[in-house]
Amino acid sequence: MTIRFIESCKLPTPFGMFVMHGFEDDKTEKEHVVLTMGDISGCEPLLARVHSECLTGDALFSLRCDCGPQLQAAMHKIGLVGRGVIFYLRQEGRGIGLVNKIRAYSLQDCGADTVEANEQLGFGADMRDYSILKPMLEHLNIKSLKLLTNNPRKVKALQDMGINVVERMPHQTGRNPHNAKYLETKAGKLGHLFNEIDEDK
């Protein structure tokens, strides 16, 4: 694995004080960050979120997805318990990159769903590689998680690399009229698990 730790610093946020750990992937030249709060050592499972970068949702307040609200909800939940970790992975557009994501959005404007748009561009429905988490987990000596996710693929990926996921915690928030079809496609074609009623309403 080509991922190496660079440096850590404090990151004060509205949700509390995190520590931000920077990692660099020499192979892809992408930079990833991990946010931790509180004492992450010991055997007690950490409340955790594996979050793939979404510039449009995380920073530009797009209503086309639920990514921004999911990130903020994870930071809020970790802030409430005072202990946890967020892996922020630079895998924009489920791994296809920002410009290709804009192309996919254009196809969605013409009626394609999120999976169909990716496939029309010649990509798989989900190109993300969660194996990049392993060196980050090892560096931080994290072995046991309570994972905030609706995506069973993330749970399996972590379990396959020897991480004990003791619980999958539903993480629903951010549903709106602009992303209703997107969320239906995530459930119907990508296997995401949603309850009928959003938790955070």
From TrEMBL:
<feature type="binding site">
    <location>
        <position position="65"/>
    </location>
    <ligand>
        <name>Zn(2+)</name>
    </ligand>
</feature>
<protein>
    <recommendedName>
        <fullName>GTP cyclohydrolase-2</fullName>
        <ecNumber>3.5.4.25</ecNumber>
    </recommendedName>
</protein>
<feature type="active site" description="Proton acceptor">
    <location>
        <position position="126"/>
    </location>
</feature>
<keyword id="KW-0378">Hydrolase</keyword>
<comment type="function">
    <text>Catalyzes the conversion of GTP to 2,5-diamino-6-ribosylamino-4(3H)-pyrimidinone 5'-phosphate (DARP), formate and pyrophosphate.</text>
</comment>
<keyword id="KW-0547">Nucleotide-binding</keyword>
<dbReference type="InterPro" id="IPR000926">
    <property type="entry name" value="RibA"/>
</dbReference>
<keyword id="KW-0686">Riboflavin biosynthesis</keyword>
<keyword id="KW-0862">Zinc</keyword>
<dbReference type="InterPro" id="IPR032677">
    <property type="entry name" value="GTP_cyclohydro_II"/>
</dbReference>
<feature type="binding site">
    <location>
        <position position="154"/>
    </location>
    <ligand>
        <name>GTP</name>
    </ligand>
</feature>
<dbReference type="Pfam" id="PF00925">
    <property type="entry name" value="GTP_cyclohydro2"/>
</dbReference>
<feature type="binding site">
    <location>
        <position position="67"/>
    </location>
    <ligand>
        <name>Zn(2+)</name>
    </ligand>
</feature>
<feature type="domain" description="GTP cyclohydrolase II">
    <location>
        <begin position="8"/>
        <end position="170"/>
    </location>
</feature>
<feature type="binding site">
    <location>
        <begin position="92"/>
        <end position="94"/>
    </location>
    <ligand>
        <name>GTP</name>
    </ligand>
</feature>
<feature type="active site" description="Nucleophile">
    <location>
        <position position="128"/>
    </location>
</feature>
<feature type="binding site">
    <location>
        <begin position="49"/>
        <end position="53"/>
    </location>
    <ligand>
        <name>GTP</name>
    </ligand>
</feature>
<comment type="similarity">
    <text>Belongs to the GTP cyclohydrolase II family.</text>
</comment>
<feature type="binding site">
    <location>
        <position position="114"/>
    </location>
    <ligand>
        <name>GTP</name>
    </ligand>
</feature>
<keyword id="KW-0342">GTP-binding</keyword>
<feature type="binding site">
    <location>
        <position position="70"/>
    </location>
    <ligand>
        <name>GTP</name>
    </ligand>
</feature>
<dbReference type="InterPro" id="IPR036144">
    <property type="entry name" value="RibA-like_sf"/>
</dbReference>
<comment type="pathway">
    <text>Cofactor biosynthesis; riboflavin biosynthesis; 5-amino-6-(D-ribitylamino)uracil from GTP: step 1/4.</text>
</comment>
<feature type="binding site">
    <location>
        <position position="54"/>
    </location>
    <ligand>
        <name>Zn(2+)</name>
    </ligand>
</feature>
<keyword id="KW-0479">Metal-binding</keyword>
<feature type="binding site">
    <location>
        <position position="149"/>
    </location>
    <ligand>
        <name>GTP</name>
    </ligand>
</feature>
